[in-house]
Design brief:
Elements: H1 2-23, H2 30-52, H3 57-85, H4 89-97, H5 101-141, H6 146-150, H7 153-167, H8 173-184, H9 186-200, H10 206-230, H11 235-245, H12 252-259, H13 264-294, H14 300-307
Length: about 300
């Protein structure tokens, strides 16, 4: 119980502070704060976390592969589900594909698994962030927007990480300290943004939104377990993948839906419903993630058994 309080308490308190700001007359400048997180803090955290802890390319590749497969599985099942339900693919497929691995997921895995969680979580998150700002944007825009991805500092921080890691390039202390300081503001800023956004989103159709929210959670659980088995993930890797895959619908979906005026209030409804549902389920999700991380059962044996 104490462990759960230590993990979930800081997330709930900081999110609540953001929510109170959103409901009060003292408003956070969310557009500026969001731009600061995306353009400065996120690239800095990715570079700082993946270079300072001397992570190997194998670890980066494993977590990136896990993130890509979770996205692929969620996209495939989500597409078929929306077709069966008669829902708009353009409006709701991104909501089923892209979990809130940043605002909510990264703080959660860091509090749950410590420095190792930060390392693994960032290696997973950068794939989600890249996909959100390329594929997600393209779906809402109705056209491919590769040039938008090339303007994101995120992609260049990843290239820098790969170069430093592959060629063992020493990073000057001034860069280490600067990126560590800038990256340190990402987690609290993301949680404040999450709370403020929940307080200010204009929602509609909360009944159907709850259906999408439940599907998102189920897709997260299913895709995570399939990937953990396929890649035979153990320890913190399994727990981190499970938590990040089961996060609620990312707020960036609402931002993009509003930007391109494609059912923004309905998408906002799914974000709110999904976030509330996930908060309710957080103790169970964290417990399952910890159980997966401590399990010594070789998940790949399931595949061997089924194939025998």
């Amino acid at each position: 119980m104490l462990q759960m309080i230590n993990i979930l308490g800081p997330i709930s308190v900081i999110t609540a502070i953001g929510y109170l700001f959103g409901r009060s007359s003292v408003r956070l400048e969310t557009q500026t704060l969001s731009a600061l997180v995306i353009l400065v803090a996120t690239p800095a955290l990715i570079f700082s976390a993946l270079t300072s802890l001397n992570v190997s390319l194998d670890v980066i590749g494993s977590m990136a592969t896990a993130a890509f497969l979770c996205l692929l599985i969620s996209a495939a099942i989500g597409f078929l589900t929306l077709k069966v339900l008669g829902k708009s693919i353009r409006s709701f497929l991104p909501t089923l594909m892209f979990p809130n691995s940043g605002n909510m997921g990264l703080p959660l895995v860091i509090l749950t698994f410590g420095d190792e969680g930060a390392l693994l979580g960032v290696a997973y998150f950068f794939i989600i962030a890249l996909a959100q700002h390329s594929l997600g944007l393209s779906i809402y825009a109705g056209s491919i927007r590769v040039q938008t991805l090339l303007r994101q500092p995120l992609i260049y921080s990843i290239i820098a990480v790969l170069l430093v890691t592959a060629f063992a390039i020493p990073v000057p202390q001034v860069i280490v300290t600067t990126t560590e300081m800038l990256g340190g503001m990402m987690i609290p800023a993301m949680l404040l943004l999450l709370g403020t956004s929940l307080a200010t989103l204009k929602t509609s159709d909360l009944g159907p939104a709850l259906v999408i929210a439940v599907i998102r959670l189920l897709l997260g659980v299913v895709s995570a377990l399939i990937v953990i088995i396929l890649l035979d993930l153990r320890g913190a890797s399994a727990g981190v993948v499970f938590l990040l895959a089961t996060m609620p619908i990312a707020i960036i979906n609402y931002v993009l839906a509003e930007r391109f005026q494609y059912n923004p209030e309905q998408v906002a409804g799914t974000v709110v419903a999904s976030t509330v549902l996930t908060f309710i389920c957080l103790p169970a999700l964290v417990w399952l993630a910890l159980a997966l991380s401590k399990s010594q059962f070789p998940f790949s044996a399931l595949l061997v058994r089924n194939g025998a």
